[in-house]
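To whoever picks this up:

The parser on our side crashed when reading a file containing two proteins. I've narrowed it down to the boundary between the first structure block and the second sequence. Both blocks are reproduced below exactly, byte for byte. First block:
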Amino acid sequence: MPGPVLGRSFARRPDLTLTLPATLLVAWVALCPIALRANETHLTRPVQPAADAMDAQLARDPVWLALVHQARRKIDRRSRIAMHEADFFFHPSGTQRPDLELHATVQAFDQPDPDRARTARCRFPARHEFLARHGRVSSERGPCPELDSWRAEIGNVRLTLVFPEAFLGNPASMFGHTLLRFDPVDWTADASGKPLLGWTLDYTADAQGDVGAIYMMRGLVGGYRGRFSIAPYYSKIKVYGDWQDRDIWEYPLSMSRADLERVLLHIWELRDVTLPYYFFTQNCSEKLLEVLEVGWPGLGRGGGFPPAVTPVDTVRAMESVADGTLGEPILRPSPATLLQDAMRRITAREAALVETLADGRLTPEDASLDGLEPGRRAHLLTLAYDLLRHRYLAKRVTEEDSRTRSLALLRARSRMGRTAEPAQSLDTTDRRPPDQGHGTARVALAAGIQDRDGFLEFRLQPAYHTSLDAPGGFAEGGQIKVLDTRVRYFPEHERVRLHELVLLDVSTASPWRRPFRPLGWHLDLGLRTRLVSSDRDRGLDTEGVFRFQGGVGAAAAPARGLHLYSFGEMVLEAAPGIEGDLALGPLTRTGASYSTPAGRYTLQAETIAGLLTGPHTSAWLAVRLDQRLTLTRKWSATLGASFEHAYDVGFFESRLGLIRYF
């Protein structure tokens, strides 16, 4: 029997010298169309040298840089990822190379497939307008049903910059807010004669229900996504004015028709873009400035230290465009402001009647109202209804009680007919628009003596406002200090020390005024230098101490320019140089400040009395007296003195300084 045929179980090896080139050719032909389709949005066709030169020039145009959001700063890594996810760029490197993005955009707008080209032009109409105006693409955009419908709904409009004042009850609003309003050319006014109908553009973070310190901490590290949204203006008035008691400043903006149209088209381009939201750098202010820069290339920052930007800086940035760009501000007071002003104009007895009517402790038919003149009685009934509505919106009155009392008040007022009430005009004597306040950041130099040791001090405070600053343009009784850093040099000892680093110091002490009695609160977190006992020199040594301090209190304003406050607080201090490394105790903080009517001069006094408890308990007593004199809008001089006794060590300090605001 013949044996197995060798090699029958093995296939014959092909001749690679003949088949490999053929195989590669077939693979190249098969894969080439796939590669072309995958890259057709940014692969380029041969371009004439003249077009190359024009593209290079256009890629440096401030308008183009604004359209691709690279005019104000480089796009950070997380934002680049988010923008690519939203298909905001045609070229993979478009977030860093505006020239490549421009070239890829031209190719996308002029690609052979007319439907795909029209889709690209409809997706980026502002880019198309820019490139068509410079002759790089055809001016024919084609039908864009969604865009055309949206643009028709916005209508023929003018721009107004809206600034709701700071709301210290919410970390998201402690610095105020900015949004854009699109006013119809044929606008409709409310009863006060101010525009009411119109659309607003807003940029906010999706906080996912977080509030308070959690919101602030996540916002500092970009823990949320922000996005643009458009809503009716009256809905914003309800939120800011009715629910949050925030006055609103409205600044008309003067922008050419062509520039305004480009801004509107760019807003359409941003409709699907969500970006990391950073509390101090990439917030409502910065994003609105990026949008407005499409119409006003080279728009300034408005103040502060880069990269931080606050809402009031957005207002000030408008002044950098041209004279007449920023119109005269119009104040839209909140219902709470109007009510408080009206209550100030009536007698104490009448104010008490208003509050008892709103509380339901007095009925509108009570005999105590019979002696009032009809116009006066009608006015008190109106004020009682306004106060009741405010308390209902603040959730201090149930819906059932509000309905019952409101109906009784309105019926009583209706029975009085067209009785003339006292004319009301808001007293704005001490009100200053936010853009006319001091700069939001500062640098200060000071010289002084601490316990017989002379020192020179450098201070850097990126934000925002202290109780010693001129109050105009800022929330009354409010203080916000962020990353307030003070470094001291002691020439005699040739030593430099970090004297204080305030991570965050927020205080709200709005004064009690009828009918409102707000509760103030204070939070202070940071590092400071204390003098503690030691075996060196005079028995004293400096020690860096971590401090956490907070509490609640109240304030009053018994006279114009005079502000009184008192707080009950707890303090925690920790440092290796403190006996037991830790001290905890209660304290009271009481103070008074007086500012001249124009805010040129401020005098402030404060006392702190408390206990610091560790292995043993020691008293803490501090007395401070500070003065500030405004030299110009950007310069102030300060003079201060203090005495402090803590951890069984007492010392005096005095200093003279100069502040430069930015």
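<<boundary where parser fails>>
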Amino acid sequence: RHFVDQALTPAQSYEKLTSEDEGVADQEGPSTREKTKEEVTEPSNQLELIQEPEEIKHPSLTLQFTFKALCETLKKLPEDDFRMFKWKLWTHYPQPFSASQSMDIVDLVDRLLESFTCEMSVQITRTILVSISKKNVAEHLRMLYIKNQIRHELCELMIQKYSEVSITEGQTMPLDDIYVDVNTFSRSDNGPNVEHEVLQITKAPTKKKPGDRLSLAETLSQEWITKTYARQVYLYGLAGSGKSMFVKKLALDWARGRSHQHFSFVYVITIREMNEYLETKISLMDIVNKLYPMAKRIKTEGLRYEENEALFIFDGLDEYPEEFNFMRTEIHSDASSPMTMRVLLVNLLRGRFLSRSRFVITSRPHADRCAPWDGHYDEIEMGSFSNANKDEYFRKRFKDPNQAARVIEHVKSLKTLHIMCCLPLFCMLLADEYQRVFRESPEGKLPTNMTYMYTKLLLKLVHIRRTRKPAFSPEDELKLLMDLGKFAFTLLEKGQFHMNRSKCPDFSHIEAVNRSGICMQYTTTPFVLCHEDVVCFLHPTVQEYMAALYAYLSFRNHDKNIFDQSVKNKLKLSHKGHRITELYKAAVEKSLQCPDGKLDLFLRFLFGMGCKTNQELLLPFHKPSAKPWFYVQKNKITSLSNQGISEGGLNANTHFPYFYI
């Protein structure tokens, strides 16, 4: 393995080089080191350098890097050749190297850098190595400093791209100031978070052991690499779980020398960037070179990536619009050969390219596997925000400690919102809303509208979906939401929060799982050697929200009360058309038949959708041909729920906590 270290700045190199001399230098005369350099500028036997020092001058050629590179290079010489090297050095520069024969490698390199600049030291070493017929060792030194130049430029580009991130429209923050280290799990298919305010929900049965929690620095660490033979790692995570932020932070920490320094090169490529070449043939290396122009020098300088030297990260595999066919796609192993994007990605997932490099592929959990069944790879999964992570995120978003404390206390008082903050995207939306309140009035009252925030989450997921497939018509989009809502309501009536995929209704699993972000699929192992694919929603409360949305849109767009067929004592509806109060009465009556409270949050969401603020958010899903609508005041909703409770003889505190709709 070859060493390519991160470069210090020229100022740091100069400071390190001269710090000791400055303490003893005479104020009126030149330093000892300056005298030495002047004396050796006229060697007794002129050495003709194979390349002028100015030709390799570069900010990456620092004192620290040069010292390590020269030491590593000279260690490749046998003992006799090293003695010859020292003799040649003494022949051309007798004064600084008069005692060179007694010097070891460290002392010799130290004396060389005391006497000459970094550029001059490198060229003297290369020239003497060639003169003693060690061209291969001289070439190794050239390779080291060229790769270090490429690395330096790559680090600068990564810092430029990822040092700041957008947290909301028109507002950016330094990534280091906003990032919260969400642990990854060393195993995938861990399923959703099923914590719930009202219900006790169990996950699908499985015999698998949960994976270990890994920090960002531990993921793909040197220790990790030594324990696995897999060159590919799939990083799975729900929509909004922070996969892209994780990738950006990893690249930024590498560029700033904080972690993953065992990789000399890190390239981040989004599938969205690769999708620009769907209609053309292009090679993998052409894509890399277009995004990272400095990488072209690897080929033009006649270099290659050494074992585990380069890390390629492909972010957002679920954004690729086509399906993968591993059985009927031709095999390619040349990363420089042009091919269609489908062929390129299939062979990338097969592990055919760049056999010495490492690959990370991020994706939402796919409805159909995006990795070949016979491939050799590791799978890890993004975790969710812990309670400590939630508090840390809000403290980072709100720089005013008093505001941060208010937000944390407020969110904790709303149990469902606090639970849902396990999803980083939801945390971000909540923080955006509270920042808007503080901008309008620093002492303003923080909102408690739960339905409003879930609608914001749905709109955000729909927006992300539209950016991935703009051709998806509004009618198809609404149909998918209605299908998912009906599926959610059917499960809710049965008291279920997951279903085996083989028993799911006939809607597009590709759209529901891969692209909408509302559903997820994971594999369970109920028995040894028995695997079952399970479909569920992002979170049980998302299922309850989608069921309420289905009831609301059925009534709003189709004048249909979904409870007509399920409530025994049907309510007579007005001849002038359904009124929303009648829908609510039917929903309350249905809920009263469920003593376990399984429809409590569903009813809270449904009531919330009758409020003006939430209906305005839901306008994109309203059909223009629907009948006129009116808004319901919160006191009317409370009156309806209290009436249903009194008629049902049930406890209001247990079954109808509708204070935050």
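After patching the parser it read the second block fine. Residues 1-43, 566-578, 649-659 have pLDDT under 50 and may be disordered. The chain has four domains: 10-157, 172-382, 387-448, 463-655.
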